[in-house]
UniProtKB/TrEMBL annotation:
Native organism: Actinomadura nitritigenes
Name of the protein in question: NADP-dependent oxidoreductase
Location of the Enoyl reductase (ER) domain: 10-311
InterPro entries recorded: ADH-like_N, ER, GroES-like_sf, NAD(P)-bd_dom_sf, Zinc-ADH_QOR/CCCR
Family annotation (CDD domains): MDR_like_2
Pfam families: ADH_N, ADH_zinc_N_2
Upper classification of the organism: Bacteria, Bacillati, Actinomycetota, Actinomycetes, Streptosporangiales
UniProt xrefs under Gene3D superfamilies: Medium-chain alcohol dehydrogenases, catalytic domain, NAD(P)-binding Rossmann-like Domain
This protein's UniProt keywords: NADP
Superkingdom classification of source: Bacteria
Length: 316
C-alpha cells in the first residue's frame, strides 16, 4: 500500500509517498481502506520530531495522522463488533503506535476506536470529528463544571475549540470565547454567549465578563500562564499541550491526553450521534490529494485555517 510518511524529522518537505506492506488485522481489530485523513497540529508535531520519545526507539518510516474515515476492508479474527466489510466508518488512530498513522491507503485500528460515520457526512467531513471532539469531551469531563457554570475557551475558532464550545453549550454551560475580528461571527454561531478579542490580555477581557473569574478555562490556544488569571479561585484549567504550570489560588490543572481514551467506544459513539444530530458541526477547510501533504502542513503552520484540512487518500 501507499502512505505518506517520513524517514527523518524536519519540515513539511520530509513528507513523501512511501510503500509499506498491507497491514493485517489481528484479534479485536478492523482494517479500513482510508478515503480521507484530517490534518491536525499533532501531525505536525510528529513530523517535526517534537514527540519522538513516543516512538520508543522504533525505526522509521513514520506515518502521521490521528483521524481517518473510509470503508471497512477486513475484520480480524475473534473481533466482537457489529461492523461489517463495506461499512463507512471513522476512526481515531494511534499514530505513535507500531501500526502508524492515518495517512495511508489501509490502516488497522482496534474495533473500539472505530464507529460508523455520522448521518449525512461524507468521508472528508467524518475524518474531522473524532480526535478533536474526543479531546474536547475529555477536557469538559475533567473540569466537571456543573450546569449553569461558566467556562472560557481560547482558540475557539479552531476545530478543538469549536467542538468545546458546542459541547459545553449542549450541557447547559455559559460559554465565553475568544476570536479574531474575522472569526467573531463564526464563534458566535457555534454557540458562544460572549465573544472577546483574542490576544495576550484575553484573561482581562474574560475577567471583565466574570469579575470573580470563570469556573474553568479550556486553553485551546496554549495561552498557558497568560490565561490563569481568568480562572476563579479553586477553578479548573484544561490544557492540551502538556503544560505543567505553575498555577496558584487553588486552581486545578488538567492535562488532556486524548490517546488515553482512544478506545473509549461509548464516548466515540456519543460524539458520532451528536454530529448526526447537529450538536457538533463538522468543518472542512479544504481537501487535497494525499501527495500534497507537505502543502497541507505548510498551510496549517501559516495559521488562519478554519475547520480542518483533509487529505484524500484515494488520490496521490
Amino acid at each position: 500500500m501507499r502512505a505518506i510518511g517520513l524517514t527523518e524529522f524536519g519540515g513539511p518537505e520530509v513528507l513523501r509517498v512511501i510503500d509499506l506492506p498491507d497491514p493485517v488485522p489481528g484479534p479485536g481489530e478492523v482494517r479500513i481502506r482510508v478515503h480521507a485523513a484530517a490534518v491536525n497540529p499533532t501531525d505536525t508535531m510528529l513530523r517535526a520530531g517534537l514527540a519522538r520519545a513516543w516512538f520508543e526507539g522504533r525505526p522509521a518510516p513514520y506515518v502521521p495522522g490521528m483521524d481517518a474515515a473510509g470503508v471497512v476492508d477486513a475484520i480480524g479474527p475473534d473481533t466482537d463488533t457489529p461492523l461489517r466489510p463495506g461499512d463507512p466508518v471513522a476512526a481515531i488512530v494511534q499514530a505513535y503506535g507500531p501500526r502508524g498513522g492515518a495517512y495511508a491507503e489501509l490502516i488497522v485500528a482496534p474495533a473500539e476506536s472505530v464507529v460508523l460515520i455520522p448521518t449525512g457526512a461524507d468521508f472528508p467531513a467524518a475524518s474531522t470529528l473524532l480526535m478533536n471532539a474526543l479531546t474536547a469531551r475529555l477536557a469538559l469531563d475533567l473540569l466537571a463544571v456543573p450546569v449553569g457554570g461558566t467556562i472560557a475557551v481560547t482558540g475557539a475558532a479552531g476545530a478543538f475549540g469549536g467542538y468545546t464550545v458546542q459541547l459545553a453549550k449542549s450541557e447547559g454551560l455559559r460559554v465565553f470565547a475568544d476570536a479574531s475580528a474575522g472569526d467573531r461571527q463564526l464563534v458566535a454561531e457555534l454557540g458562544a454567549d460572549e465573544v472577546v478579542a483574542r490576544g495576550d490580555d484575553v484573561a482581562d477581557r474574560f475577567r471583565a465578563l466574570a469579575p470573580d473569574g470563570v469556573d474553568a478555562v479550556v486553553d485551546g490556544a496554549a495561552q498557558h500562564t497568560l490565561i490563569v488569571a481568568a480562572v476563579r479561585d479553586g477553578g479548573g484549567l484544561a490544557v492540551v499541550r502538556g503544560w505543567d504550570g505553575p498555577v496558584d489560588r487553588g486552581i486545578h490543572l488538567h492535562k488532556v491526553l486524548v490517546t488515553e481514551m482512544a478506545t473509549d467506544h461509548a464516548r466515540l459513539l456519543r460524539l458520532r450521534d451528536q454530529a448526526s444530530a447537529g450538536v457538533l458541526t463538522l468543518r472542512v477547510a479544504d481537501v487535497l490529494p494525499a501527495g500534497q501533504a507537505a502543502q497541507a502542513h505548510r498551510r496549517l503552520a501559516e495559521g488562519g485555517v478554519r475547520g480542518r484540512l483533509v487529505l484524500d487518500l484515494t488520490t496521490f
